[in-house]
Amino acid sequence: MDYDDEYELYTDTFAKDYKTPYQMQSDLFNDVYKRNHKDYLNSIEWDTIWLKHDTEEETQIKIEKQKQHELMMSPFAKWF
């Protein structure tokens, strides 16, 4: 952005409502959710991909793939 006037730069810089992430989250917790801890935590979009557990079939497939990989990468692979 080009500023022709120093006053314009000053007002643009200090007139905006700058908040840190902590201030934004505390305002959200205090004002929007009225300090209700459960509602606040439910509003957050959590990344739960890492929490997903494999089924027994998926576990077996992974084990088989790992064994095949180990056999192929083994120094004795040509004799297997």
Explained architecture:
By secondary structure, the protein is mostly helical. It has one domain. 59% of the residues lie in helices and 0% in strands. It has helices at 6-15, 21-32, 37-43, 56-73. The mean pLDDT is 79.
Rg, rounded, reads 28 Å
Proportion of helical residues: 55-70%
The number of distinct helices, counting runs of at least 4 residues, comes to 4
Low-confidence stretches: none
SS class? mainly alpha
Distance between the termini: 68 Å
Major sheet: none
Beta-strand percentage range: under 5%
Number of strands: 0
Order of helices and strands: HHHH
How many domains is the backbone divided into? 1
* Apparent shape: elongated
Comma- or semicolon-separated keywords:
single chain, 80 residues, mainly alpha, 4 helices, 59% helix, 0% strand, elongated
Give the helices and strands, then pairings.
Layout (H helix, E strand, L loop, with lengths): L5 H10 L5 H12 L4 H7 L12 H18 L7
In short:
This protein is an all-alpha fold and 80 residues long. It is built from 4 helices and no strands. The N and C termini lie far apart (68 Å).
